[in-house]
Every structure is written in structure tokens, then in C-alpha cells.
Amino acid sequence: MSKSKGGRTIMDPNNVRMREFIYSLITINPKLTILDLGCGQGYDLFRISQLMDNESKLFGMDTNQKSIIKANENYGQDTRMNFIHHNFGQNIPFDENSFDLVFSNNVLECIADKQHLLREVHRVLKPEGQVIFAHFDWDSQLIDGDNKELIRTITQTFNDCGSEIIEDWYFRRSRANATINYSYCFGC
Ligand SMILES: C[S@@+](CC[C@H](N)C(=O)[O-])C[C@H]1O[C@@H](n2cnc3c(N)ncnc32)[C@H](O)[C@@H]1O
Known about the structure:
This protein has 2 domains: 2-134, 3-Layer(aba) Sandwich (Rossmann fold), CATH 3.40.50.150; 142-183. It starts with a strand and ends in a 5-residue tail after the last strand. 36% of the residues lie in helices and 25% in strands. Helix 2 (43-49) links the parallel strand 3 (33-37) and strand 4. It contains 6 helices and 9 strands. S-adenosylmethionine (SAM) binds at residues 38-40, 43-44, 62-64, 67, 87-89, 105-107, 110-111, 186-187. GO terms for molecular function: methyltransferase activity. Keywords: Methyltransferase, Transferase.
């Protein structure tokens, strides 16, 4: 997805393009108060801040303390930006009707109690506020299913042999009616 060079994050162009598309969904108005759930090191919130006026307020939250420190180092000099260490297992530490936009990118699949988080989003969102939950993956895969022995064989073969062989093997098993749930996730 991205790599670090001299403290700067270098993003893959496809990754950037996908993010830019997601930002294009934001309804831009003056003085918006924005919350980014699972902000990581703050890249999305920084890019969103560039679309906003000087009276906007932007808050990023993440359970990873190192990411919050890095986000503050990267973008904390902009007084509109605030990064808060918080785990979504707890209530969001803001009053109801606080935010015009609640944004979250590549996070919801990491959350154990999604209902709780969505209730909290509803609580802190202003009436007529906007919610953007997005997800995209490029780099890694999660293989899951009921047959744990089969899953272990798949992942071990994948590690040992590489993706071409596992894909070939996977499709041969599919034809033999093996049931495998195949989904993607990164970073969790
Ligand atoms: C895949 S990363 C996405 C980061 C960023 N939104 C992006 O798209 O680059 C998922 C982020 O969600 C955060 N996260 C996962 N579970 C969380 C939780 N229960 N509470 C708060 N943050 C969480 C992780 O620390 C991580 O920074």
C-alpha cells in the first residue's frame, strides 16, 4: 500500500487515486467539524483538511498510540487538526450532534462490536450530517473457513510456494466442492 522514505509516506498511485475518489464524496461546506475513525498516521485527515476552510475542525482517532504520536508529528502543527488516542470499544468521547462528517477508511472490518460503533457514530453525528465509511485493499489477504486444517494447509502452502501455486490449488479444490470463504483485509 505505502512505504516510508526519510520519514515520509510514499503511497502507491492506485492507492492515492482510490483515496481521492473517496474524498470526492465529501459534501464541502464552511466550518465543518470532521471525525476520522481509525485515522492511522493521519494521511486522510490531512488531505481532507486541504479541502476545508480555516474554521473547520478535524479530529482523528485511533487505538494505536504510535500512530497518534506520528500523526501529531506529521500534521499537528495545523491547529485545526487534533489526534486522539481512543479505542472504539469505548464510547466516542464527544457530545451528541458534534460532527458534520464522520469518515472512516479501511477500519470497520477491524472492529469487533460494529453495532456499538455505528450507534456511537449516529449519536455524535449532527442531523443531516454525512457518514462516509469506505474500504479498499491492495496488499494482503485473509483466508478463513470452517475447515481449519484446510485453512492451515492453504496458508502454509502460500507461504512456502507463492500465490500462483495457491491460486491453482484453490481453484482445483473449488472444483472439488471444498467450501472456502475468501476475503481480504489489511493492517489489522
Ligand atoms: C487498516 S488501518 C487504516 C488506517 C487509515 N484509516 C488508512 O486508511 O490508511 C486500520 C486502523 O484502524 C485502527 N483500529 C483498529 N481497531 C481499532 C479500534 N478498536 N479502535 C480504534 N482504532 C482501531 C488501527 O489502529 C489502524 O490504524
